[in-house]
């Protein structure tokens, strides 16, 4: 759905400043219906990447393809048409204070030449969908931060886009509003079959709603993948940010396993049933990533040396059905 191929972006320097390389050979694919989280420290290129997806910022090199159309090859007129399939939500809402919520949502349709009755009906429908049916006549100053962001979401959806870009969309919200807006974005992605890219510096946002995550550092992709795959990679820079390693008691000989999508007690029961060993959980951490539960368990496995080796070999042989793997030996 979205394909960035070998994207680089360099901002020219001045007499006093050197050129700035914001993105350096970035390649990234987001499939239809996915929510991709893009994370990284300040200055890593996250916001530049978002603006390049809809060519508000043109890359220095590389290609951008959205829904089978190579945007970087389009003329200015055709690019403006293609941009209507890409909605964008910003941190500061960018609503017009002089317009009501209804008129703000109507704005992109008005600019596209849609008739008054049609755009009024569409805007009303969307405001009802985002939970603001009673705020049609309210101005932004009369709305809370969470309500203003809901108006911005409705406005972004007015032209019926297939892609939704969210640049730090919850950074200016309180925790309760963040939770409700993220839930709404996940619902709308699933309901409307959107492809959503969330630019964020908060790993909690990724944990709550994303299917995939990409880490940018210094303008380069240093890690990327489905959340369930990332947390199972022992050397992944993202793994411990999504699912921290627990701290077992000092001096205990332990092994660490990553468990996904299964009841942890059933995992231990299966291990004990198959092998004549004693298993103790020394420490553990559990997180909900998207709609799945994952855990890291640090275990002490006691028994005859040969039996313990067989049990550890079993843990190391992860299968999709069992969703269990030996992450590392900590002893």
Characterization of this structure:
It is a single chain. This protein is α/β, with parallel strands linked by helices and 331 residues long. It has two domains: 2-230, P-loop containing nucleotide triphosphate hydrolases (Rossmann fold, 3-Layer(aba) Sandwich), CATH 3.40.50.300; 244-329, Alpha-Beta Plaits, CATH 3.30.70.260. It has eleven helices and 14 strands. Strands 6-7-8-3-9-10 form a six-stranded mixed beta sheet, with helices on both faces. Strand 12 (278-289) and strand 13 (292-302) form a beta hairpin. Helix 3 (101-111) crosses helix 4 and helix 5 packs parallel to helix 6 (175-192). It is globular, with a radius of gyration of 24 Å. The two termini are 45 Å apart. The model is unreliable at 319-331 (pLDDT under 50).
Which key phrases capture this entry?
four-stranded antiparallel beta sheet; 29% strand; 331 residues; alpha/beta; six-stranded mixed beta sheet; Alpha-Beta Plaits; Rossmann fold; 11 helices; disordered C terminus; 2 domains
Radius of gyration: 24 Å
- State the CATH topology of the largest domain: Rossmann fold
Overall average pLDDT: 86
Largest sheet: 6 strands, mixed
Helix-residue proportion = 25-40%
For the record, the CATH class of the largest domain is Alpha Beta
Low-confidence segments, given as residue ranges, are: 319-331
In CATH, the homologous superfamily of the largest domain goes by the name P-loop containing nucleotide triphosphate hydrolases
User: Proportion of β residues?
Assistant: 25-35%
From the spread of the alpha carbons, the general shape counts as: globular
The secondary-structure element order is EEEHEEHEHHHEHEHEEHHEHEEHE
Order of neighbouring strands in the sheet with most strands = 6-7-8-3-9-10
Overall strand count? 14
Q: What class would the helix/strand composition place it in?
A: alpha/beta
Q: How many H/I helices?
A: 11
Q: How many domain regions?
A: 2
